[in-house]
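[09:14] KT: can someone run the structure on this one? pasting the chain below
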Amino acid sequence: MNSENEKEFSDIAYQKFNSGLYKEAIEMCVKSIEADSKNSYPLFLFGCCEYALKNYSSGISFISKALELEKKSNYYSQRAKCKYEIEEYESAIDDCDRSIEINSKNSYFYFLRAECKYELKKFEDALLDIEHSINLNPNNYETFYLRSFIKGDLGDIEGEIEDLDKVISLNPSDFEFFKWRGILKMILKKNLSAIEDFDQALRLNPKDLESSIAKFHCSESHKVN
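[09:31] RB: done, structure tokens below
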């Protein structure tokens, strides 16, 4: 065992990973593991690289090996992310549970568990998790965006629009948010307000055909009414 070599290889692997050079990072992870097979971190980083390369089953395998050596909340959450991608939602929820048991103050763990529950159509449970996530971190637009979908599936279109209001206040540069809010307003017959959203979507992305078509139908409907 050479701890100095292991640390050097791990540091290089981390730098490669952050630079998006995942295959090169894996090569350094292998060298780090060879230098010290009892260190969980290079196994975990190996798994993160595999996740980035969309080799999700392999990612699960390496992160599981890391967890055999050390139980860490981010290891469980990363394995849950891999499982989510291959639609193993129940097992991913189990990993999220373990992450939360170790660190109950991390908003992302609740967000990830909410995503899994949403895919399983457990909307009420997902709503509880996403609200917990928002309480811990009220400045992440992705949590409000997920909650908007949950509310929509629960039949609360007004609540869905309110969450999109928050999403847009936190991230006003994505045309998709304005377009989707406009569509919801169309459903509620709020045509003038919907047109404003479609106009803003088109300012952000003039080539968006869906917004153009939706604006046209909304304008025609407003004329009729």
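[09:33] KT: thanks! The domain at 86-156 is CATH 1.25.40.10 (Serine Threonine Protein Phosphatase 5, Tetratricopeptide repeat).
[09:34] RB: yep, looked fine to me
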